[in-house]
Amino acid sequence: MYKWIMSILLGAACVVGLGVLFMQTAERQGQTKQEASAPALPDTPLNIQAAEASYKQSCISCHGNDLAGKIGPNLQKAGSKLSDQQLYTIIQNGRGGMPAFKNTLKDDEIINLAKWLAEKK
């Protein structure tokens, strides 16, 4: 009897584990599809002063004066891990604990900020 109960519990744990794994994989694929389907960023020149001003206004409280991170992650080498398009999507829509800025910043500010961060390698 004990072996049957343990077998059932073990089987249920496996099903739950596979369900969680499946959901995480589907979520990652959904993010990839969202990024892939997003239109390319406009080919506008980077305005470093405007990007730094946007950063100071909206990002510094979580990512720190020197991009080293505080509440939010370190962004000093963000461009070595993420493209400008990926950064744009994250800034616009938020991710994890980061809020979305699509209603706070203008689109050209988000684009400029994403391009500025993408150069940090």
Task: Note the topology.
Elements: H1 2-37, H2 48-58, H3 60-63, H4 78-81, H5 84-93, H6 107-118
What does this structure look like?
The protein is mostly helical and 121 residues long. The chain folds into 2 domains: 1-37; 48-118, Cytochrome c-like domain (Cytochrome Bc1 Complex, Chain D, domain 2), CATH 1.10.760. Helix content is 64%, strand content 0%. The chain contains 6 helices and no strands. The chain has helices at residues 2-37, 48-58, 60-63, 78-81, 84-93, 107-118. Helix 2 crosses helix 6 and helix 5 crosses helix 6. The relative contact order is 0.14. The model is unreliable at 14-23 (pLDDT under 50). Residues 46-121 form the Cytochrome c domain. Heme c binds at residues 59, 62-63, 98. One of its GO terms (cellular component) is membrane. GO terms for molecular function: electron transfer activity; heme binding; iron ion binding. This is Cytochrome C.
